[in-house]
Design goal:
It is built from 4 helices and no strands. The protein has 75 residues and is mostly helical. The chain has a domain of 52 residues. The N and C termini lie far apart (26 Å).
């Protein structure tokens, strides 16, 4: 398994952060930057647990996709 994890830079996260939902409820959230880094890594390589549970990554990706987060990112 590839151990070269992907982490968003401050600049990359700064571009995304204004587009992330802030109306959160329910269970305490895994850090957004960590989850986005995990989503990007999964797309590139695999889903190591350092990014959080696979289900969390998937669910967050789906919710943000429905809210248009990725369209606003353009990447």
């Amino acid at each position: 398994m590839n151990r070269e994890y992907f982490w968003l830079s401050d600049e990359q996260f700064g571009l995304l952060e204004p587009h992330l939902p802030t109306d959160t409820r329910g269970k305490p959230r895994v850090d957004d930057r960590r989850v986005i880094s995990g989503i990007i890594h999964v797309v590139k390589v695999d889903a190591p647990s350092v990014y959080g549970p696979r289900k969390t990554l998937y669910n967050r990706f789906q919710r943000w996709s429905a809210k248009g987060v990725w369209r606003s990112y353009g990447g």
